[in-house]
Design goal:
The complex is a heterodimer of chains A (61) and B (138). With 61 residues, chain A is mainly alpha-helical. Chain A has two helices and no strands. In chain A, 80% of the residues lie in helices and 0% in strands. The chains are: A mainly alpha (61), B mainly alpha (138).
Chain lengths: 61, 138
């Protein structure tokens, strides 16, 4: 099996993507609601990722 | 009498959810396929499978249950349960002899987390399949 090298950002984005898909699929009642929820989860993941990234950068000076 | 009716309404129907839960655990999305939700089943299968494969390609480590202090027990036993929750993916991987030692490095570390997260996402899929099978959810 090939070995994969990803940056922190790439790995975290992939994690956010697949987690959001599952969270979207298992919640809500209609497909439209599931799609919206999945997209919203992904947006929250990315916002938290960027926010925490900046926080760590500023914290380290 | 009314309580009996209420209790019966909340109880799982005779349709049998055991098979659904077992299949959902072994094959991510399998419970949804069995319950005639192929679209959702495909998305669950693809998400869990890709996440697990990415974890393997990043050479993530599989947890073995260990006991000691509380933190060690929680991390290693919890991680083992998370790995095991990926069903056939985990069983096949272990059966084929995948054994990577715990190494330093962010890629390897992400791989370990991806393997556990794939199992935990499958737990959510199993719970969803159970709720559909028992009629708690459409």
């Amino acid at each position: 099996m090939p070995k994969m090298n990803l940056s922190h950002f790439e790995a975290a984005i992939l994690f956010a993507l697949f987690s959001s898909v599952v969270l979207g699929v298992i919640t809500k009642r209609t497909d439209a609601e599931r799609m919206r929820y999945g997209v919203r989860c992904f947006a929250y993941f990315v916002a938290a990722l960027i926010g925490l990234g900046w926080l760590m950068k500023l914290g380290h000076g | 009498m009314a309580t009996d009716v209420k209790a019966q309404a909340g109880a799982p129907p005779a349709r049998g959810w055991y098979g659904v839960v077992l299949l959902a655990w072994l094959v991510p999305g399998g419970g949804h396929f069995l319950l005639k939700r192929p679209g959702r089943g495909v998305l669950l299968l693809a998400s869990v499978a890709i996440m697990f494969l990415l974890g393997l390609m990043m050479r993530g480590a599989m947890f073995q249950p260990q006991t000691g202090d509380v933190l060690t027990t929680i991390i290693y036993c919890g991680g083992f349960v998370g790995d095991l929750a990926a069903g056939l993916f985990y069983l096949l991987t272990v059966w084929l002899g995948y054994a990577v030692p715990d190494m330093a490095g962010h890629v390897h570390d992400y791989g370990t987390k991806f393997l556990v997260a794939a199992g935990l996402l499958n737990v959510l899929a199993v719970v969803d399949a159970y709720e559909i099978a028992t009629g708690e959810k459409e």
